[in-house]
Amino acid sequence: MNSDSDLQIAGDILEVPHLLQPPREHPATVAEFVGLARSVAADRAQWEHLVEYDATTRWYHRLSTGPGYEVWLLSWVPGQGSGLHDHGPSSGVLTVLDGTLTERTERGTRALGAGAQRVFAPGYVHEVVNDTLEPAISLHVYFPGLTEMPMLPQSRHRSTGGTPMACAARAGSEPVDAVTA
């Protein structure tokens, strides 16, 4: 009987640097994009000084880009909203940095407070609104980078029996809740 273990034969993989995969310079998986959003959110010095508030329209600023993705910072004063839309072929991670935003989908309405994250696939239809009395700030990571954001008519969807986005929803496009901090 052979008493040699795999560890004795091959050695500890953590002790053999040439067997480890090098860390990626840029995110490539959904989990890595969520991690990117969390790390940017945690580094307030990177974005806080850039935030502006505009009473006439949502303010936005592209923070960074990488191969196949973009990171955007948005501010929302009370009453501002995105309108009903999807993100074309892009997936995304929405992270609320400050304040509270309301997300409306065909499945209902959800309040997203600071630290909340939503992950969504291409074709996901939603509307985001600041319906509080305080401003809000959000971070958006799109992969691939945002090339289109088709706006959908609100009135067409309101006639579907109480769920405004019911006829705009697409199969398999429900977002996943990321763990909130």
Structure in words:
- By secondary structure, this protein is α+β, with helices and mostly antiparallel strands.
- Helix content is 15%, strand content 29%.
- The chain is built from four helices and nine strands.
- It has helices spanning 6-10, 30-42, 44-47, 154-158, and strands spanning 59-66, 69-76, 91-98, 100-105, 108-113, 117-120, 127-129, 136-143, 176-177.
- It has a six-stranded antiparallel beta sheet with strand order 1-2-8-3-6-9, with helices on one face. A three-stranded antiparallel beta sheet has the order 5-4-7, with no helix packed on it.
- It is globular.
- It starts with 5 loop residues before the first helix and ends with a strand.
- The relative contact order is 0.19.
Helices and strands in order:
Elements: H1 6-10, H2 30-42, H3 44-47, E1 59-66, E2 69-76, E3 91-98, E4 100-105, E5 108-113, E6 117-120, E7 127-129, E8 136-143, H4 154-158, E9 176-177
Antiparallel strand pairs: 1-2, 2-8, 3-6, 3-8, 4-5, 4-7, 6-9
Q: Specify the number of helices.
A: 4
Globally, the shape reads globular
The proportion of residues in beta strands is 25-35%
* End-to-end distance: 51 Å
Low-confidence stretches: 155-181
